[in-house]
Design goal:
By secondary structure, the chain is an alpha+beta fold. The protein has helices at 3-14, 54-64, 91-100, 121-124, 131-134, and strands spanning 24-32, 37-41, 70-79, 106-110, 116-120. Helix content is 30%, strand content 25%. The structure holds tetrahydrodeoxyuridine.
Length: 136
């Protein structure tokens, strides 16, 4: 899939965000190895800590449906859904990526006006705790 299409799907996903507390809307589009795309948004909670990020919403939907092999994720976010800077996934979401993805998994961090930056999971999660390395 073209990166532009994946990024369009992330921007669309951002409109689904439930963010009444922070007002910060986030969208993600996760590309599986077979070409399937799962979209996710952040879903906040009055008790704050139950909040789930857009990236994890996308991953958990995909894993529930049986996917284990992923290629890339596009993410964007901004106050009231207005993208003002490149969006870097939080540390918890990077750890979830590390559970399922190889080091060359690609993260498209969307910025304003069609701009974006890319990084590999190896770049975003150096020295990550890995079950494959340490728990088997
Ligand atoms: N958020 C995400 O959805 N993904 C991230 O990687 C970082 C933060 C959400 C959580 C919360 O609803 C809002 O952004 C502000 O932190």
């Amino acid at each position: 899939m073209e990166p532009q299409k994946l990024m369009d799907l992330a921007r669309e996903a951002m409109t689904h965000a439930y963010a009444p507390y922070s007002g910060y809307k986030v969208g993600a589009a996760l590309l599986c190895a077979d070409g399937t795309v799962y979209q996710g948004c952040n879903i906040e909670n009055a008790s704050y800590t139950p909040t789930v990020c857009a990236e994890r919403t996308a991953f958990f939907k995909a894993v529930y449906d049986g996917h284990r092999d992923f290629r890339a994720i596009a993410v964007c976010g901004g106050k009231d859904g207005v993208i003002s800077g490149f969006f870097p996934p939080c540390g918890v979401c990077r750890q979830v990526m590390g559970e399922f993805c190889d080091e060359d998994f690609t993260i498209y961090m969307i910025g304003p006006e069609g701009t974006y930056q890319t990084a590999s999971l190896a770049e975003l999660l150096p020295y990550g705790f890995s079950g494959k390395k340490y728990m088997r």
